[in-house]
Amino acid sequence: MPTKFQNYIAGAWCDSSNGKTFENRNPANWDEVLGTFPLSTKSDVDRAVEAANEAFRSWRLVPAPERGNILRRAGEIMVQRKDEIAAIMTREMGKPLTETRGDVQEGIDTAFYSATEGRRLFGINTPSELRNKLNLSFRIPVGVCGLITPWNFPMAIPSWNLFPGLVAGNTFVFKPAEDTPWTANVLVEILIEAGLPSGCVNIVHGAGEVVGAAITEHPLVQAVSFTGSTSTGSIVAQNCGKQTKHVCLEMGGKNAQIVMEDADLDLAIEGVLWGAFGTTGQRCTATSRLILHEKIHDELVDRLRKQASKLRLGDGLANGTDVGPIINEKQRKNIDRYVKIGKEEGANCILGGEIAEEGELKKGWFYQPTIFTNVTPDMRIAKEEIFGPVLSVLKCSSLEEAIEINNSVIYGLSSSIYTRDINRAMQAARDIEAGITYINSATIGAEAHMPFGGVKATGNGHREGGWAVFDFYTEWKSVYIDYSGKLQRAQIDIN
Ligand code: UN1
Q: What 3-state class would DSSP assign to 351?
């Protein structure tokens, strides 16, 4: 019998109200069932929201530095359990252990950053226009927050939200992706062990259409953070909009790496291999377009193809695996569909382009690292997010053209330029439409204490990470203290 995992609501582990469950399986070995999880209902969400609402009454009054201490302890526990959590994560979502350790580390970094932010959360004071009067503004928590997260960063993305959100005084109803419920439960266990009071974090597992929808529709939920596809994000935003809830969206990307003719080509090749095929291309920040200056195009493509063909596919738990499986069958079918579209559109598939099923690989959802050349900006494989190990190579003849191609998609999350010319690098940093631009580095690898998010169809103006996430998880309170002892009328009793 597989292990039966539960929801955590109002300080107690519990099944879903109807007793139904779903299975969590290993994408590298689909026969392996890692556990069952509650297929929760709207009434489970209602209970979780009420618990979070009740907990908020006292949690918001706990001094922020004290809230930060709990986060620091959570970070310390994560340090202790790092390898164990990484192994769980690799088993449930497939990426190699080096990468899942990095994912846990991103959570640890966020925990320690958030812990110290409890001693900052700076406000702004400004002079009053009137005598004997003081103007203060400080941050207050928003209240009950809904958190809906994807499977590709099962520890980092929930941590980016829960940790700063909690230190700011909010409480949560958390719905992790159905593909990675185990890591999410471990995160909740850690917060409980660190001393988080009952009700501050509630986890409700299940389907997006049921649990996610119920979170976005509940009137006591004040804010919702969602990371996932642009199509689902738009539904989340519409639901939230009906009740004027705050909503933070982190959605699709079609990130490009530009390589100019003066670049260090060895470095650029290492960068694109990591950016396009790391995490099997399943990052919002993954490199899915490579824009090459015509003078180095043929050489770089040739060398890239040779190196990419050496990448080892396999179980992320095995030593030497470079590229793990695709998360599930549906996603692999989608990738294969895009590869067929690319071939039909007339792009030249110079590597991969097929499901990988030799030997042990047939137990899981593997796909060959795939490279298309002769891609033009109007092709679907140059415009649409694929979320897999598929790279589209485009050609340019100038920096201006490279930037124009980069900006021709609806998305704007990450970007990268390889050049030795500081003027070109700075021009690209200014003109590329994206939330993140890397100079001489891959499109992936954002650090936990920097603002993270994208422009255009990738986001809705908010940022996670660093100091910027507090703009989502807090509201501003303005306080006027009049110590003149008389009625002073703003805008009227002035000289
Ligand atoms: C994501 O793909 O949703 O910058 C997050 C990176 C990671 C986070 C990716 N630190 O690639």
A: strand
Q: Where are the beta strands (DSSP E) in 27-131?
A: 29-38, 124-127
Residues 339, 428: one domain?
Answer: yes
Question: Domain for residue 454, yes or no?
Answer: no
Residue 466 sits in the same domain as residue 431: no
Taking only the tens place, the pLDDT of each residue in 184-195 is 999 999 999 999
Ligand 1 geometric centre to CA of 270 (Å) = 18
- Domain count of the chain? 2
Q: Is 304 in the pocket of ligand 1 (CB under 6 A)?
A: no
Using a 10 angstrom Cβ sphere, with 0-12 exposed, 13-18 middle and 19 or more buried, the burial of residue 408 is: middle
Judged against a pLDDT cut of 80, whether residue 128 lies above it is answered with: yes
Q: Which domain holds residue 241?
A: 7-251+459-478
Write the pLDDT tens digit of every residue in 331-368: 999 999 999 999 999 999 999 999 999 999 999 999 99
Residues ≥6 apart with Cβ < 8 Å to 142: 168, 170, 222, 223, 246, 473, 474, 475
Evaluate: CB of 232 within 6 angstroms of ligand 1: no
Would you say the CB of residue 153 lies under 6 angstroms from ligand 1? Answer: yes
Closest CA to 267 of 418, 383, 416, 75: 418
pTM over 0.90: yes
CB hemisphere CA count around 238 (13 angstroms): 7
